[in-house]
Specification:
By secondary structure, the chain is mainly alpha-helical. The protein has nine helices and no strands. The relative contact order is 0.11.
Length: about 200
């Protein structure tokens, strides 16, 4: 099902975009989250291949650069993947082992770049997650007018990640617990906006 799933789309809207009846969609996916999980399962192989190629690259910095470029390319091309990465912590859903393997590969890419002295030592997996989150509004806002501008933004960020230009950080990175709590908060905020939008549409009907 090659449907683009944005943050405000209901199952009814997704069915319309996919060209299927909403009853068909509900028989297969009781909730929007179930649909996100199912599509993520289809795309996870592509994301894993990117991470595996980066983990096998001997040059830690080049591995990180290519990993970020290609992962953002996947996110820009399929917004449901972006949705899944943003709103679903690695230990959630029935794809637990696949998510854990992705995290292991991501950590390996970061560790090699740190060990080689190319990536600043204080950049963590949680920071990587926040970096991906920061691209969401940029990708959404520029999709129609300048779909490749994310590459420019990424290379500005990469300059700030170089070890030789690092400055001490006063604020520690998020712990896993804080990261998962932030994901939950973001999910609740988006869900609240979707419900508010649905109520508004019903009131105008």
């Amino acid at each position: 099902m090659g449907v683009i799933l944005d943050d405000e789309a209901s199952l009814e809207e997704i069915a319309r975009r996919a060209g299927v009846g909403v009853g068909t969609l509900y028989r297969h996916f009781a909730t929007r989250e179930a649909l996100v999980e199912a599509i993520f399962e289809r795309r996870i192989g592509e994301l894993a291949a990117v991470a595996q190629a980066a983990a096998a690259e001997p040059d830690g910095w080049q591995a990180l650069v290519r990993f970020l470029e290609q992962t953002l390319e996947l996110q820009a091309g399929d917004r449901v993947l972006k949705d899944a990465l943003m709103h679903h912590p690695p230990g959630a859903g029935h794809l637990v082992s696949a998510r854990q393997e992705l995290r292991r590969l991501f950590e390996q890419v970061l560790e090699r770049a740190r060990e080689q002295g190319r990536l600043r030592a204080d950049f963590t997996f949680a920071d990587l997650t926040l970096l991906f989150w920061s691209f969401t509004p940029l990708i959404d806002a520029t999709a129609e007018v300048a779909p490749n501008v994310r590459r420019r933004h990424l290379h500005w960020l990469l300059d700030g990640l170089r070890a030789e230009w690092a400055t001490p950080q006063a604020e520690p990175p998020l712990s896993d617990e804080q990261l998962h709590a932030a994901m939950d908060a973001l999910r609740r905020q988006r869900l609240g906006r979707r419900r508010g939008a649905a109520a508004h549409r019903e009131s105008r009907a």
